[in-house]
Amino acid sequence: SAVISQKPSRDICQRGTSLTIQCQVDSQVTMMFWYRQQPGQSLTLIATANQGSEATYESGFVIDKFPISRPNLTFSTLTVSNMSPEDSSIYLCSVEDSTHETQYFGPGTRLLVL
Amino acid sequence: RKEVEQDPGPFNVPEGATVAFNCTYSNSASQSFFWYRQDCRKEPKLLMSVYSSGNEDGRFTAQLNRASQYISLLIRDSKLSDSATYLCVVNEGGKLIFGQGTELSVKP
Question: What residues in B contact A45, CB-CB < 8 Å?
Fold first, then answer.
């Protein structure tokens, strides 16, 4: 399985600021995914990031709030913009496994917005 | 109606007990199904895939009933280390849809 790392692992931020989360994979992958897991909730897909094209956002998520970069086949970033306390969550990136049916997840970034 | 529904629990069981988790999904066109395990403050990790024929991995047995749109996970001889949240996951057109998870606590 792919080895996925995320930076930062956690952060405490002030409202109105932005945070960029990095996701690094140890092998080249076509698709990378960004999820949010709010306190006590399950995972919700934010967007799918393909290299060389615009990210595809799920209903309820917009590019202005969650801009995503995918500069190459091993790296992606998610920015949480103009943060509010409601953005306090765990943000996880993932990649597909070799069957393209399921996914492996990074360790997550714990964000607290004050 | 949620796309993937699970009993949130918590399930509190003694060591050695057998425990069963149930899950239902709403989209009959869903292609593949999985159980993930998520430990406290950790990322979800794939536990096992679920097939119509049923599949077993040691103490864990997963079953899929497509007609009823129902998925189950059975854990036999539960261990303290089985304590975690178990997530039912459905692949719909390449996207993973997660249930809210069922919390299991195994006590000595």
Answer: 95-96
| Alpha carbon distance A12, A94 (integer Å) | 23
Q: If chain B, 108 residues long, is cut into consecutive pieces of 10 residues, what is the mean pLDDT of each piece?
A: 87 97 92 94 94 90 94 97 97 91 96
Average pLDDT over residues A8-37: 96
Distance between CA atoms of residues A65 and A97, nearest Å: 28
How many CB pairs lie under 8 A apart between chains A and B? 41
Contact A52, A73 (CB under 8 A): no
Q: Kindly determine whether residue B42 and residue A103, on different chains, have CB atoms separated by under 8 Å.
A: no
- The three-point CA angle A30-B55-B12 to 5° equals 100
Q: What is the C-alpha end-to-end distance of chain B, expressed in Å?
A: 37
